From TrEMBL:
UniProt protein name: Amine acid ABC transporter, permease protein, 3-TM region, His/Glu/Gln/Arg/opine family
Taxonomic lineage from the root: Bacteria, Pseudomonadati, Pseudomonadota, Alphaproteobacteria, Rhodobacterales
Transmembrane segments: 26-47, 53-73, 85-102, 126-154, 161-188, 299-317
UniProt KW keywords: Amino-acid transport, Cell membrane, Membrane, Transmembrane, Transmembrane helix, Transport
Gene Ontology CC terms: ATP-binding cassette (ABC) transporter complex
Family membership noted in the UniProt record: Belongs to the binding-protein-dependent transport system permease family. HisMQ subfamily.
Protein location: Cell inner membrane; Cell membrane
Domain ABC transmembrane type-1 stretches: 130-316
Membrane topology (UniProt): Multi-pass membrane protein
């Protein structure tokens, strides 16, 4: 490339981005980034807890980088990949600065909370606890959906007697803390002659609470269907049951899937409350491992097991919501 071609390329570049403010252009952002890095290399304090002036300089330096990141993130013309890279970099930079300047004894943190050398036999307990957690969650989710859908349909019938009892069910179990409900079912019901195993006591408590939420989710989804579609189905000779089955519910399910999936993700997290009634789920086994190994490392590792289990479910619900929103806009 000769000098004329280079000048032509620079002219085209400037012409393409001439409409943007100067602080959003790549050349000025690159210059700002270079100055920002130079300041870090020359003026930031060394590793360890800094002086008040040093701490102020670190905060000012980070805020300057945060402002530059905000300029890029607020620009609709910048590529998505660049924005995601900058977002992740800002988060990692924050934790990196905290690691460098907090003055924390990281060797003691590692020995107390990340002592993997003492985890012999714990991984089997994690596997067993995770299996019980998923069993409780799946059984409770299926029953919650069945009862929630049934109660949601019944609430749309307009029967005052049904609405009274279903309304009491919804209000009571939405207001009652899950841990209280679980304790009452497991420890109080035996006094009236009803004894449930810990597994089924946990499932019952989760079903009662989540079916109350899902009743309102399904009721709102059913009532959102336009009245004209119901009238058209009746005009075609469909009865109430056929109208509900073939016209209302297929559309209502598309509406309720996003809040329903979010509720089910919360249900999986709520299984951790079952430790109060000695269900051998993940958190219960982690606490037993803490007592056995005399270190909180198993409890910290249980957090990562929960994250590894729930984050894919959360991303799945997001993708499902995007697909549904895309279908609505077509």
């Amino acid at each position: 490339m000769d000098m004329a071609d280079l000048q032509t390329s620079i002219h085209q570049w400037r012409k393409r981005w001439a409409y943007q403010p100067w602080f959003r252009r790549y050349e000025w952002l690159a210059l700002g980034l270079a100055v920002w890095i130079a300041v870090a290399l020359l003026f930031l304090p060394p590793f360890g807890r800094p002086t008040p002036f040093g701490a102020a300089s670190v905060i000012a330096w980070y805020l300057a980088g945060f402002v530059m990141a905000g300029v890029v993130l607020s620009d609709r013309e910048k590529p998505i990949l660049l924005k995601r890279t900058i977002s992740v970099s800002v988060i990692f930079l924050f934790f990196g600065l905290f690691y460098r300047y907090s003055g924390t004894r990281w060797d003691r943190v590692q020995s107390q909370f990340f002592d993997f050398s003492r985890m012999d036999g714990v991984w089997e307990m994690y596997a067993q606890g995770l299996l019980v957690t998923l069993q409780v969650a799946i059984v409770a989710a299926v029953l919650s959906i069945i009862f929630g859908l049934t109660f949601g349909i019944l609430r749309t019938l307009g029967n005052p007697v049904l609405n009274l009892f279903l309304g009491l069910h919804v209000d009571f179990f939405r207001a009652l803390p899950l841990i209280v409900s679980m304790v009452l079912i497991f420890y109080a019901l035996p006094f009236v002659g009803i004894r449930l195993p810990a597994f089924w006591a946990a499932v019952l408590a989760l079903v009662l609470m989540n079916s109350a939420y899902q009743t309102e989710i399904f009721r709102a989804g059913i009532e959102s269907i336009p009245r004209g579609q119901i009238d058209a189905a009746r005009a075609l000779g469909l009865g109430p049951t056929a109208t509900m089955r073939h016209v209302i519910l297929p559309q209502a399910f598309k509406i309720v899937i996003p809040p329903l999936t979010n509720n089910l993700v919360s249900l999986v997290k709520d299984t951790a409350v079952a430790y109060v009634i000695t269900v051998p789920e993940l958190l219960t086994n982690a606490q037993q491992a803490v007592t056995w190994k005399r270190t909180p490392t198993p409890l910290v590792l249980s957090m990562f097991v929960y994250l590894a289990t729930l984050i894919p479910l959360i991303h799945l619900t997001r993708r499902l919501e995007r697909r549904l929103n895309t279908g609505k806009t077509r």
